[in-house]
# Entry
Amino acid sequence: PEKHQGIPIQDMSKGYFESGLMLSNLLRLNMLNFGYFGLGVGVFVRYGAYYLPANAFDNVSIKIDMTISF
# Structure
């Protein structure tokens, strides 16, 4: 922290907690009989000491999953 002058540094000493659900291969497409391309989606929620109380949606993140299998 002493080298980051003017930038506030926050350590995660209280632990960062996030849980969620990920659904992979909701859409699975055949790639020229060579492999598969899959798309999925997930939702994750932050909680614990670093929860942001101002707006509940600030603690929710939506993630997209892309997979390629041969």
In short: Strands lie at 17-31, 35-47, 60-69. The two ends are 45 Å apart (CA to CA). The first strand starts at residue 17 and ends at 31. The chain has a mean pLDDT of 89.
